[in-house]
Design a protein that fits this description.
This protein has a domain at about 30-100. Helix content is about 25%, strand content about 25%. The chain has a 3-stranded antiparallel β-sheet with strand order 1-2-3. It is of the alpha+beta class.
């Protein structure tokens, strides 16, 4: 966590509260491209447009698969670290639950 600005007074801590995300559209993605430029990290979430193939013959003549970007996020390094840690904690809990079942 970054140092708090130094100055007069003790400051005030405010609680962060999440509003409902029910109104947001859910976007399916199965690929992510992560890069950083200057002080920001960029995450581009995308979906591979996979062909319908029931057999190897269905893929004859298919030479490439397009990956279609859906969402691009720009994050500060602090936000990227925090998000990365939160994702790792959740993945670990998910894997532990799978092992229990």
């Amino acid at each position: 966590m970054p140092d708090l600005p130094k100055g007069k007074g003790e400051g005030k801590f405010l609680e962060l509260r999440w509003a409902s995300a029910d109104e947001l559209e859910t976007v399916y993605v199965n690929h992510v491209f992560v890069s950083h430029h200057g002080p920001e990290f960029y995450l581009v979430f995308a979906e591979a447009d996979l062909p319908m193939a029931l057999s190897p013959e269905d893929l004859e003549g298919v030479d490439e698969i397009w990956i279609r970007p859906k969402v691009k996020l720009a994050l500060t390094p602090e936000a990227m670290i925090s998000m990365s840690e939160a994702i790792q904690r959740n993945v670990q809990r998910f894997q532990e639950k799978l092992e229990e079942d």
